[in-house]
């Protein structure tokens, strides 16, 4: 997952792809561009580790974060 600082008018998937020079298959299309905060206009996109490393340091990219799968610790307990 990568966080981006964007003007809200640029917070569309097509504009993010163009700005970061990414192909559509390099970004999770179902995740899209998610608004994290109105101030200071933080958004997130979901990409794999190689893409995140490649765009790290590009203008507007605020940081990369892991997106671990969340699973239960064991079988469900009966009540």
What do you see in this structure?
There is one protein chain. This protein has 79 residues and is of the alpha+beta class. The chain has one domain (2-64). It has 2 helices and 4 strands, in the order E-H-E-E-H-E. It has helices at residues 13-20, 49-55, and strands at 2-5, 34-37, 42-45, 61-64. It has a 4-stranded antiparallel sheet with strand order 2-3-1-4, with helices on one face. Strand 2 and strand 3 form a beta hairpin. The longest helix has 8 residues, at 13-20. The termini are far apart. The model has no long low-confidence stretch (mean pLDDT 88).
Question: What is the rounded Rg?
Answer: 15 Å
Number of domains: 1
Sheet with the most strands?
4 strands, antiparallel
Calculate the terminal CA-CA distance, rounded to whole Å: 37 Å
Strand order of the largest sheet: 2-3-1-4
In helices, the fraction of residues equals: 10-25%
Which structural class do you get from the secondary structure elements?
alpha+beta
Which overall shape is indicated by the principal axes computed on the Cα atoms? elongated
Number of helices: 2
Contiguous low-pLDDT stretches (5 residues minimum) are none
Strand content: 15-25%
Order of helices and strands: EHEEHE
Average residue pLDDT = 88
Number of DSSP-assigned strands: 4
